[in-house]
Amino acid sequence: MSVKFEKETIRESASQGVQAGGAQKHGLAHDLGTALTGGKSQQPGYLAAYLNELQSHPLRTKMLTSGTLSALQEVLASWIAHDRSKSGHYFTARVPKMAVYGAFVSAPLGHVLIGILQRLFSGRTSLKAKILQILVSNLLVSPIQNTVYLASMALIAGARTFHQVRATVRAGLWPVMKVSWITSPIALAFAQKFLPEQTWVPFFNLVAFVIGTYINAHTKKKRLAALRRKYYDERGSGPSGPPGVGGPSRGPEYDRRGGY
Questions:
Q1: What average pLDDT is seen over the chain?
Q2: At what angle do helices 94-101 and 58-81 cross, to 10 degrees?
Q3: Which residues in the chain show pLDDT less than 70?
Q4: Where are the beta strands (DSSP E) in the chain?
Q5: What is the Cβ-side half-sphere exposure of residue 229, based on CA atoms within 13 angstroms?
C-alpha cells in the first residue's frame, strides 16, 4: 500500500512539474507575443508602433533600423569569429562606421531603389508581373546595392584610392552576386506573398543582416587564420609546435593581432 501510494505521489508531482513548466513557457511566449502585437488590449504593441512609425516617417525609420542592424551585425560577427580589438573587446572601430553606412548609405539607397521597383509594378499582381519584378530586382537593383556595399566596405577597411576600391569591388562582386541570386528571389517572393509594401525594406534589411553576419564572420575567421599562419611562419614554428621552440605559445595577444 505504502509503495503504491508513494509511486502515485511521484507521478502526480512529476505531472504537476511538467504542467508548471509548460505554463511557464506558455506564459513567456504569451507575454512576448502581447508585447509585440498588443494582444487584446487597446494598447498597441511594439510591432504595431514600429509599422505606424514606418508609415509616418519611412526614411527615418529605415535609417534607424539599418544603422542598428549594421552595427549589431559587426559586433555579432566579431563575437562568432572571436575577433577582438587590441584592448580585447568585440566593440571595434568598425562598429560605428558600419552604423553610419547602414543609416546614411544602405537605408536611403534601398528606400529609393525598392521604391522605384514598387512603383514600376504597382497594381500588377499577375504571376508574370511578379516574375518580372524578381528579374528586375536581381539584374538591376542587386548589382547596384552590392557594388555600393563593397565600395563602402573597402573604404571602411582603409582603402583610400580609387584603384583600391575598384579592386575590392572587382574581386568581391561576383561571389556576392551569386549569394544574392540565390537568396533574393526567395526573399522577394515571400515579401510579394505575405508582406505589405511598406515593410519590404526592413524585411530585406533583416535578411541581409542574417546573411551578412554569416559572411562577415566567415571572412573574419579566414583573416584571423591567415594572420596566425603568418605569425608562426615569421617565428619558424607551426601552430602545433611546443612552446619555447621557435616561438611563444598561443596567447590572448595572438588572437587580437587582426583586430580593428
A1: 80
A2: 150
A3: 1-44, 236-260
A4: none
A5: 5
Q: pLDDT tens digits, residue range 3-55?
A: 454 545 545 554 555 455 554 545 666 665 565 555 565 566 787 888 889 88
Note the pTM of the prediction, 2 decimals: 0.71
| Exposure b/e, 13-43, CB count within 10 A at least 16 = b | eeeeeeeeeeeeeeeeeeeeeeeeebeeeee
Cβ(117)–Cβ(137) under 8 Å? yes
Name the nearest CA neighbour of 237 among 167, 228, 104: 228
What is the Cα–Cα distance from 46 to 36, expressed in whole angstroms?
5
Q: How far, CA to CA in Å, does 106 sit from each of 63, 68, 99, 100?
A: 8, 12, 10, 9
Residues in contact with 108: Cβ distance below 8 Å, sequence separation at least 6, in sequence order: 59, 62, 63
Q: Which of 41, 179, 197, 72 is nearest to 124 (CA)?
A: 197
User: Within 10 A of 56 (CB to CB), how many other CB atoms are there?
Assistant: 9
Cβ proximity of 213 and 81 under 8 Å: no
- 71 close to 102: Cβ distance less than 8 angstroms: yes
**pLDDT score for 199:** 84
- Predicted local confidence at residue 120, as pLDDT: 92
Residue 258 confidence (pLDDT): 45
Helices 127-136 & 162-194, crossing angle to 10 degrees? 160
Tell me the helix, strand and coil percentages in the chain, rounded to 5: 80, 0, 20
What is residue 215's predicted lDDT score, i.e. its pLDDT? Answer: 85
